[in-house]
Amino acid sequence: MSRIPGLLTVFLIGLSACAPTGPSVTSDGVYRIRADDIADVQYRMLDSVNALRTGAGVAPVALDARLTAAAETHAQDMSRQQRAWPFGSNGSSPYDRVARSGYQGALVAEMYAQTFETELDTLAAWVDDGAWGDEILNPEATDMGFAWQQDSTGLLWWVIVLGNGDAASAAPVF
């Protein structure tokens, strides 16, 4: 009788190893990201961007919380607008969002997408795009922000913001 609790413990530990980790494709074929997947998704994207950059002989970027806040603001706003584009519903530009985030460096690039695809599929599409692929490998970038918004349908609004923390941000010209 005393062996049963021990066997049950071993069984439950083994079963817990079978629990899904990270985002998963649900039975309806939609890639769903749970709240506890945020760090996994962010660092998977950071690692993938840095693998591309290193492979191209370019220095890696560091994940920056302020640029991530700018990316998150824009991802949420694109979702509300139901439109993937660089402008916020308040008329803000990527430069405005980066400045509002408190980032002291300069904006290098912003990439965005509206898709049901994973973060790595989206990165591959950006790389294949040419212009955005060049921006991902831009040697001026030292920092990266990455965020997304997922609608109830599973539609994802992805945003990467690249910055140069060594460059002072340019003052807007009026």
UniProtKB/TrEMBL annotation:
- Protease among keywords: no
| Secretion signal, residue range per the UniProt entry | 1-19
Q: Which residues form the SCP domain?
A: 46-160
Pfam name, any one:
CAP
Tell whether Signal is among the UniProt keywords.
Answer: yes
Q: Which keywords annotate this record?
A: Signal
Record SUPFAM superfamilies: PR-1-like
Q: What is this protein called?
A: SCP domain-containing protein
